[in-house]
Amino acid sequence: MHEPPTFRDHFSGHATDYSRFRPSYPEALFSWLATLAPPHALVWDCATGNGQAARALASHFETVVATDASDEQIAAAQPHPRVRFGVHPASNSGLDDHSVSLVTVAQALHWFEPEPFHREVTRVVVPGGTVAAWCYELFEVTEAIDAPMLELYHDIVGDDWPPQRRHIETGYRDITWPWTRMATPDFEMVADWSLERVLGYLRTWSATRRWQAREGRDPVAIVEPRMRAAWGDASTRRVNWPLKLLVSAVDG
User: Helix (H) and strand (E) counts for the chain?
Assistant: First the structure.
């Protein structure tokens, strides 16, 4: 089943690059999520994209149903024996009523039509089950390296970000959410990346792709010389992305 016309697909055109250059979520996040549901629970990873979160969840849960409205994203996902991939929108998972103990949404909640997703979560989650969403905005390396990246984000491709991006910038504080928000630990993604991988990551931004399609040139190339100069001779550097979580028990 495909997402209705309101589906905003900003990533299918570069699903392989998206899978290649995205950072990995911390194992501590999934260990903590595992405390919120029984180990043999069925988990629904909604808008799974390349399946990164789903595969990590499979280390803690017996079965993960990973859905995405994009055929291309599901096709690019790496298989896992405990993950069942399928093409479904956030509003229609194909799951049975009250069949899952945990619903997760990684870096995708801001794309959803809120009310249809909320109804679907309420329908599929068991009494006392949990829904967890998280997002991350910009990475942090050093002030000198971050500065040209911020120029790319705000000044060069800033007008090409879709309006839903504002929810990422506010860490989901103002997103529509009908359940009581629980306190959560602090998590961050950490990676030791080369400059080439950082530049590749910047080229997966939807705004970067949109700007390039319109202007016919690569916007990352505008800031690349400054980033190279600031990076220096280091083969890799530590890159950090703070995570913002939105987690609730689902009332029936």
Answer: 10, 7
CATH number of domain containing 93:
3.40.50.150
* C-alpha closest to that of 74 among 89, 59, 63, 62: 89
Instruction: Answer yes or no: is 62 within a domain.
Output: yes
For residue 167, tell me if it sits in a domain.
yes
> Is residue 4 one of the residues assigned to a domain?
no
Quick: pLDDT tens for 52-109: 999 999 999 999 999 999 999 999 999 999 999 999 999 999 999 999 999 999 999 9
Residue 251 has a pLDDT of 80
What is the extent of the structural domain holding 57? Answer: 12-249
Strands 237-249 and 188-193: antiparallel
Residue 7: inside a domain: no
How many domains, the chain? 1
**How far out from the chain centre does Cα 170 lie?**
15
Please state the pTM of the whole predicted model. 0.88
- Residues 191-228 have pLDDT tens digits of 999 999 999 999 999 999 999 999 999 999 999 999 99
214-245 burial, b at 16+ Cβ within 10 Å, e below that, comes to eeeeebbebbbebbeebbeeeeebebebebbb
